[in-house]
Amino acid sequence: MTILRNAIGMEIEGKKFFRKVAERAKYPRTKEMFGSLVKQEERHVRVLEEELDRLQSGKGWIAPSSIKETGASSAPHEVFEGAKTQASAFDPKSGELEAIRLGMDIERRSIEYYRRAGDEVGSEEAKRVFNWLVGEEAGHLSILKAEHDIRSKSGFYFDNPEFSLEVM
């Protein structure tokens, strides 16, 4: 349950960060991308809160695809604690490209946290939930990386995608 509470806190902090960047972004594509990430983080919070509620009531884990919407909250975790993320993310002088880089760093740390969480839990159902979150966060990282490549004119980037990496 501690892992779930920490994960909920991480997702809430991620949502706050992405929302702040979306509100501040001047480039429409960046604004839209971060707005979409806010919605996806909200979905993660709902999934994790439902899992926590089920565990607290003795019902056990269920698959993410079976989760219904609910609500609660928790405290942030190591992805944001002690990191330069919060301070520089909300500095009005930092640009959109820097916010994208920070977002990529947050997603990398989230992926690592969920991988470790999946390794620590004994339940196969719990492992599936954390593996699902690794996949979700990896998708976010791909979206941010593509936007970074577009904005910095480096590497491979997507212009008119043949498919969407976003989850509705």
Radius of gyration: 16 Å
Question: Strand tally, please?
Answer: 0
Q: Judging from the principal axes of the Cα atoms, what is the shape? A: elongated
Indicate the percent of residues in helices. 55-70%
The total of helices stands at 5
The CATH architecture can be named as: Up-down Bundle
Structure notes:
By secondary structure, the chain is an all-alpha fold. It has a single domain (2-65, 88-152), classed as Up-down Bundle (Ferritin), CATH 1.20.1260.10. The protein is 66% helix and 0% strand. The chain has helices spanning 2-24, 28-56, 85-89, 96-120, 124-152. Helix 1 runs antiparallel to helix 4 (96-120), helix 2 (28-56) packs antiparallel against helix 5 (124-152) and helix 4 packs antiparallel against helix 5. The radius of gyration is 16 Å and the shape is elongated. It starts with a helix and ends in a 16-residue tail after the last helix. Residues 67-90 have low confidence and may be disordered.
